[in-house]
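Why show two proteins at once? Because comparison is the fastest way to build intuition. When a single record is shown, students tend to memorize it. When two are placed side by side, the eye starts asking what differs. So, the first record is below.
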Amino acid sequence: MRPGVASGVLTALLLGACSTPRLQLNSISPDALKAQLNYAEFLLTADNDTCATRLERAQQQVGSVAASSRTRVMYPDGWATVADLEYRIHLARAECLGEAHHNEELRTAVSSARQAAELYRNQFDYHSMVVMQFDASVALHELGDSPAAITALETALDMDREYGFADDAAENYKLLLTWRGETASDDRVATLMHDFPRRQAVLKFGWSARDAQVTLESRRSCLMHEQLVTSHADAVFDRRIAATDDGGWAVSYAHRLTQYMPGVWPTSPGTPPMAFPPALLSEVGYKVSASGEFDVVTESGSFADELATKTEELIRTSAPAGKQAQDLMEAAVETAPDNLTPGMLEAVTAENYQSETAMWIGATLDQGVWYEVNASLTLPGLPRIATQHRVEFAFTRMVPCSAGDTAPVCAEIVMRLTPDKEALDRLLADYNNRTDSAHINGYAASITTRIVTDPTTLLPFAREQQVFWYASITNGDSVLQSEHLVSTVHYSGWPE
């Protein structure tokens, strides 16, 4: 637990949450939604009742999740698992409901598979994306549309090659040969697989003096009285990497408050009166060693004061009208410095450097292989609390470094972070045992991060994070919130 948490986890929780004058919500745990999807999946393979009855019940469960406001918070662009199950339901209906509905259900299955593939892509679950592309080809083949099925399967094979899914590719080539009416022997498949790419990302630290412009955008969503409330924060500033006398590197920033919006007020008119905490978009200067080890933060206190002053100004000038909004404005102004303390700025700076650069120094990653480590990280929504996390990561593919580039010379790395359950349970039990106030009944969080970096230097080019977190308290309060953060870096004179 970080210093300064003596006031309790509850205070830290409220600092990280969207807030109203009095937050009174029913339980909005995402666990119930996941249970519904698990039940729908069970119904697809159960042997009780008729198939039509089971599939109708499965469709009701999936439809309820798809329509839920909680789903729109957790997955603003859509939940891939929902579309995946829709595909399986319609595929089963094509067999169950008879000839009259066969083709209609298969066409709907194709549409669901394509939607699921796109949603899995957006969530960086590339293997599931390829599986759904394959499933779309299967449904097209059952429809009797052989040319479209072959084209869809060839697209799946292109994906296999891009993302390095060799085992899938071998099976898919065998099926492709069969659909084409060709001999699908092992030798023929081996011939098609002989040039299948075997990629590695060999990651080395090799910074050089650089000037860059950083652009950040944060879209946050929160559930208030079953209504989805969103905010948008953004910042544009300059970053400089300069050599130090001892052979290391100093990172400094300029113009951080010139183009900065903290995203405190909701973007949609007619939403419940509420305010978000200021988005932690700005970083502070720091130094690293010649080998890339994080050394020290070179500023925090002075900039934290500047940031809090600018944030207060922006909160006041963009506040909505009305007495309730005025009360919220004063509360937002009062709590803004607590959300922008030097310690919090230092923590986000160190964690961002760790995920973008330090973690990969000297690593060699085989494409498509998932690795796992444990790390102590701050909890989403509880910005003053750190606990052990399970960190899974993979080198997924080679991509252009920046928009407008064409050569795929940068490595894309995807990370999935979840709090360690035992460590989290101990932390919450410790807090609940030490307080007579409201207890924290439950907490859940999920973070998916996409990093784009130059493997020869580990200069970061992009970081994209998808986060959702949930917490419930014994007094009846609950919070469900998500954030989609996109950070891009444009280096002067790049590419060289």
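Second record. Ask yourself what differs from the first in the token line.
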Amino acid sequence: MVDQNKVDDVLLIDQSIYPADVTLELAQSLDMLAPFGPGNSPLVFGAAKMRIVDTRPIGKLGEHLLIDVEDPESNLNRLILWNGSGLSLPAGTFDLAYTPRATNYRGEDQVSLEWIDYRLVKDEIDVSAKIQTQSVQNIDLRNASPEEQLNHFLDLPNTIVWKEGTTNTEIQGMNRLNLVPSKNLVIWSVPSDYETLKNILDTVKPLNIYWVLSSPTEHQLKDFLRIFVSHIKSTIKHDRYDIQILQMAADLSVTETTIKLALDWLVAKGIISIMPLSPGYVKVVEGGNPDPVKLAQLEESLQQRFMELRALTRHLKDVDLDKLTTELG
């Protein structure tokens, strides 16, 4: 049987109309043209710039697909693709070909939409190709020796080394507070969380990323608390009582939340008292009243925080870097 709606494998569209505009009355009037057959094929409608929102298999063997689509006005409609299991579906914007029918389900008349075919929007294909050619280049140095790592980027112009924490003081780098756009970015330290990593990439906007991912000493809870307490004692000793939480977080390569937990931990131990100043600043004074119950809760929270940090470190050491930068972009 020859499909009267196709000429030389080109699908002919009878009318351009969005699924959301197909009324029950229109579908019923089209059904009056039945039975369809040679010379009288079902009408095929077209809808431009659609997107798939969701899909769900149906049928005894899951052989058919229900496909939820969205039009440019954000109207949602559901179509059925017979025997569509396993077929390739468009990931971006596409032009849809479909056939509407009037059906009756459990005594209620309704419109049923049958997926016929699709065509990717040419503009979107071109844009995707352009973006792909301009994607970030990831240079994986996660398993290289320190000497090999340094040789890769020390002499590169337009290069920023992002580094936090007190490990490897011979490596000069910038922390999260003083980054600027640059062609090349070296991520020397493991970031404290995904938000920090995303902010680094958004700020620097690099074309090339050199991934070293050295773990700062402060990413071990015991070492972090030792260095943190030393910082607080030094602050008090030198009569500098104001602490900028974000600055200390950058210095010790942790999140602001971790710094706040550690301050509260010292308060609960009775070592210091703190008073809020302007947003992001606190005043620290020596001495206070211990709170053993609060102390136990804070120690549990800190342990949980550093367990999450270890999990992040393991993930970053093994993750596909191209996939990671695509997700964070």
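One difference worth noting in the second protein: The chain has nine helices and 15 strands.
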